[in-house]
Design goal:
heterodimer, A: 540 residues, mainly alpha, 3 domains, five-stranded antiparallel β-sheet, two-stranded antiparallel ribbon, 21 helices, 71% helix, 5% strand, flat, B: 429 residues, alpha/beta, Rossmann fold, seven-stranded mixed β-sheet, 19 strands, 19% strand, globular
Chain lengths: 540, 429
């Protein structure tokens, strides 16, 4: 009995204090909303969080968007002791924690005390939908597109009204098209016959997958034969276009895979192709390049975008030096003995792998993708290419032509070609062949390191990275013709495109096998590859 | 000169001490074999389990050992080479006379060890989720069987998320193939049409996922809610998830649920684009229990790095090791046959706030947890089975094995008993 009175007294006391302190009624109700939301968000039950998100939206709370963003970025935590919400960037001992309601900063004593306010996919969709309503007028086009797509996921009357309003003032073509599709999907089910006819023609002119789905459903449901044929014709047109763009996409995938192959193989085209050294440690030189990228990112954690660019010369130098060390330490004693070279470099590759395991641990390291390399370049709803792949294709071509320039236009290139064609003659002309061997091997290794930077953006940075590419690299160089770096480019691109053309109907496993079989047959027919080297050197 | 003398004295002292230690150990220690790859492809996953075993053994020795004797770990490296697993297992049993082996990761390495432990009557504790269809007298499966991971995961997607179209993507080897066969039969028995299931296999270490992710995108744009069930293994996951992120496949549109991606694998990727994708396990590091907190603290102290994560196979070793200790105490000996008999019915706490019991079919009871990936590479549990699930050695959804049960108690003592024909085939796999 007494406890109940005390509780009542306390509650009314708090209420009075609130009334006294609060500047106005608005502020006070806000705080109540926030207190309520706080209590709901720290609850372990998922449905409570759904209610909290809804409550914020209903109250149209000024801090709603801020809290939504924090939830999406999972920066909202609660303290298990006091059940208050905190904003935390990084949960480590000693880092600041900002109380969401009181805005007071405290320091984290034990990181285990703070638990993340985790939301699930359904709640993320819920938040995105609420945010989409304001996103329709956002200044960035991508945000507006995202907002329309979010609303299209569940087209109710509220969403349609919002889109209709925004459509009037929208100026950007892509957003307008998307909005028109959204409105047409609705008209298709609710409008009169003339309106439906217009809707079909709008949807027929769009490649938006949701529009196509709406048309398919319409064909199944409608009882008007004339409109049905119209919709069917529209579908045929869409499918034709989709097929065309799918083909285009496949070619792009092939070129992108080819560019990775060329990058991985081009260093080998120099060491194996020009110098004739079977270097089984080539893959590990690529791996070292990838690890260099990782280390550079660790050194400049606040400049991820720049770090990848810095990594290119760094990886060239590091891998190049390792390559020179291998050449000086092992390979130079074994020139002219391919079998021993093969075994020795295979040994070197194992040593390098285990060294990386010891230094960096056997676990994969995480290399971040810079902002400017993520995302996609949209051509239309069914054809878009990822920026990272596009950059890698361009990067591959750049490396290729730079290398070509070095081999054809510089003194080093001249000496390299001279030594590889006739060592004795070159020496007689005053070329220090030992030094040229070293520089050539360093160049090839350095280029392998550069390939590692590109691969760090696509695949694992781990001790096994090199093994995955060594076979492919040899395949490309042999197929292209040993000693010809143009051959490497053509061979890499051909194999990439061939692989991707076969993959849709043969599957990834069979496509790989078929490519190997094809190369075996090809080498049987033309042992010197696509572009055989001619002249006396080749004969010897 | 004086310094050198001192050095010599210390050296000889340590030598004498260590010889004494060795002889002392030889006299009264129980040897425990640790058979995990420390080099080669699988080192990425298995090295951690080796460390876990060393930690558990050290902890047990601090508590006074077992049967009044100290435990001694014998660590060997099968180097991710499957036949070498069999050789190393033979060495452990014949040369080192270990009381039990904790080890193996891939199914093929387990299959390689299986005949050896059966021949020499050893004990193998296998800590990884696997495809089932096996029950050996000498193997204890402390990882999940398909009904403790794959089936509940599909139930969750079907009932909670309303998924109607399914992509079953896997690496081309025995675990994904068998799991996908079970899942396909299961989905069809729940009325999913043939054209709503897309099955795709890729080679080991596949790195170019452009076409497959693009296929998944178009498969998922047919107006029905689509999900990907991934049994993609090991290193191939990183480029797969990267490509998903690059092509903008978000978890809200097409969730991917993985059976082989845990905290350890995620620690090698930038997890921000993966937020919301799912994984099904029997343990997550983020589980909030006192046992788990203690385990994580112990792990961090042992490994000397508070950034290291814990994962599901580590919990499986924790459970398996404690079960073995309990069974040895119960039997009063480390004799394999006695331990085999004693361990059935042994119940030990797991790390998620419940208990794990060793069942007569040599599988254990486990809760099934579904977690969503968070930006920091941890999982947040979004659903869990109300109680623990008993591991089923032989799937109820496959033609050949639905009538088969396994029971290693007397008098049946059979890993492959057909309840219709009432015969024991004697084959364990």
């Amino acid at each position: 009995m007494t406890s109940r009175i005390i509780r009542w007294l306390l509650a009314s006391g708090v209420l009075l204090a609130c009334l006294a302190v609060s500047a106005g009624i608005q502020a006070q109700t806000d705080d109540q909303v926030l207190l309520e939301v706080q209590a709901l968000l720290v609850s372990p039950n998922a449905p409570d969080k759904t209610v909290a998100i809804e409550r914020l939206a209903q109250a149209d709370h000024p801090r709603a968007l801020e809290i939504y963003a924090l939830l999406l970025d999972s920066k909202l935590y609660f303290n298990r002791a006091d059940d208050f919400l905190y904003v935390i960037d990084n949960v480590v001992e000693g880092a600041p924690a900002l109380a969401l309601l009181s805005q007071e900063t405290s320091l984290i004593e034990r990181r285990r005390d703070y638990r993340r306010v985790a939301i699930n996919n359904a709640q993320r969709t819920q938040i995105r939908r609420v945010m989409a309503q304001t996103g329709l007028n956002h200044e960035r086009m991508e945000v507006r597109v995202g907002a329309v797509q979010q609303l299209m996921g569940d087209l109710d009357q509220d969403a349609l009204t919002l889109i209709r309003e925004a459509y009037v003032s929208e100026t950007h073509g892509r957003v307008r098209d998307l909005m028109a599709v959204a409105l047409a999907i609705d008209t298709l089910t609710s409008g009169d016959e003339a309106a439906q006819r217009d809707a079909i023609s709008v949807l027929g002119g769009s490649l938006e997958p949701r529009g196509r789905v709406a048309l398919v459903r319409y064909v199944e449901a409608t009882d008007q034969p004339r409109l049905k044929t119209l919709a069917e014709q529209a579908l045929v047109g869409i499918d034709q276009q989709v097929r065309f763009y799918k083909g285009l996409e496949t070619v792009f995938f092939g070129l992108s895979m080819g560019s990775v192959l060329v990058l991985a193989a081009i260093g080998l085209a120099i060491t194996f192709g020009v110098m004739g050294v079977i270097n089984m440690a080539h893959g590990e030189l690529i791996m070292i390049g990838a690890y260099t990228t990782f280390v550079i990112q660790q050194l400049m954690p606040n400049h991820i975008g720049l770090s990848v660019l810095v990594a290119v010369p760094a990886a060239f130098i590091v891998s190049g030096l390792v390559g020179i060390a291998i050449e000086r330490g092992v390979i130079r004693f074994l020139y002219g003995r391919p079998l021993e070279t093969l075994l020795a470099t295979f040994g070197v590759s194992l040593v390098l792998q285990q060294a990386v395991r010891s230094i960096f641990s056997p676990l994969n390291r995480s290399v971040q993708t810079p902002e400017w390399m993520s995302g996609m370049l949209h051509f239309n709803p069914v054809f878009a290419v990822t920026w990272n792949r596009l950059y890698i294709i361009l990067f591959c071509l750049m490396v290729f032509f730079l290398l070509l320039l070095i081999l054809k236009r510089t003194a080093l290139g001249l000496q390299v070609r001279a030594v590889s064609q006739n060592r004795a003659m070159a020496r007689a002309m005053g070329v220090r062949s030992e030094r040229v061997d070293m520089m050539t091997f360093g160049l090839g290794s350095g280029v392998a390191g550069i390939a590692g930077v590109a691969l760090s953006q696509l695949t694992n940075v781990g001790p096994n990275l090199g093994q995955a590419y060594i076979i492919d690299s040899f395949m490309v160089v042999v197929f292209g013709g040993v000693g010809n770096i143009w051959g490497t480019l053509v061979a890499g691109m051909t194999l990439g495109v061939a692989n991707k053309l076969m993959e849709p109907w043969a599957g990834a496993v069979l496509a790989k096998i078929l490519v190997l079989v094809f190369i075996i047959l090809f080498i049987q027919k033309r042992p010197r590859g696509l572009f055989p080297q001619r002249g006396r050197a080749a004969e010897g | 000169m004086k310094q050198m003398k001192r050095k010599l004295v210390t050296a000889s002292c340590t030598l004498a001490l260590s010889i004494a230690a060795i002889t002392a150990q030889a006299a009264d220690t129980i040897k425990v074999g640790v058979l995990h790859s420390l080099s080669g492809t699988m080192a990425i996953s298995e090295t951690t389990l080796k460390d876990t075993m060393l930690m558990l053994i050290e902890e047990q020795n601090k508590k006074g050992g077992l049967l009044g004797m100290q435990l001694e770990a014998v660590v060997v490296d099968p180097a991710s080479d499957w036949p070498l697993f069999a050789e190393r297992a033979r060495e452990l049993l014949e040369r080192d006379k270990v009381a039990a082996i904790f080890g193996a990761w891939t199914s093929v390495s387990r299959k390689s060890v299986l005949p050896v432990v059966e021949e020499l009557n050893g004990l193998l504790f296998y800590p990884v989720q696997y495809e089932g269809e096996e029950s050996s007298r000498n193997v204890f499966y402390t990882g999940a069987a398909p009904n403790q991971q794959a089936i509940p995961a599909v139930d969750y997607l079907m009932n909670e998320l309303g998924i109607e179209r399914w992509v079953l993507a896997g690496t081309d080897y025995v675990y994904p193939r068998t799991t996908n066969r079970i899942l396909e039969a299961y989905l069809k028995s729940h009325g999913v049409a043939e054209e709503d299931i897309l099955i795709n296999y890729t080679p080991f270490g596949h790195s170019d996922w452009q076409t497959i992710v693009s296929d998944i995108r178009s498969f998922g744009s047919a107006g029905k809610k689509t999900a990907v069930v991934s049994t993609i293994n090991g290193d191939a996951n990183v480029p797969f998830y990267r490509e998903l992120g690059a092509q903008g496949v978000s978890a809200e549109d097409i969730p991917v649920i993985a059976f082989s991606v845990g905290e350890e694998e995620l620690s090698g990727i930038d997890a921000a684009p993966l937020v919301g994708h799912l994984a099904a396990w029997n343990y997550f590091m983020s589980v909030d229990t006192e046992e788990n907190d203690a385990f994580i603290d112990q792990w961090h102290a042992f490994i000397g790095n508070t950034d290291r994560v814990t994962n599901d196979p580590m919990e499986a070793h924790y459970i398996g090791f404690n079960m073995w200790v309990e069974a040895v105490n119960k039997a009063g000996t480390t004799d394999p046959s006695a331990v085999q008999e004693a361990i059935i019915g042994v119940t030990v706490p797991n790390l998620t706030g419940g208990y794990a019991a060793m069942m007569p079919n040599h599988h254990i009871t486990k809760p099934v947890l579904i977690g969503e990936i968070q930006a920091d590479g941890q999982f947040e549990t979004v659903w869990r089975t109300p109680s623990t699930v008993v591991g089923d050695a032989w799937s109820d959804f496959l033609e050949g094995s639905k009538d088969i049960i396994s029971d290693w108690r007397k008098p049946l003592e059979c890993g492959n008993y057909n309840v219709v024909t009432k015969t024991c085939s004697g084959q364990t796999f």
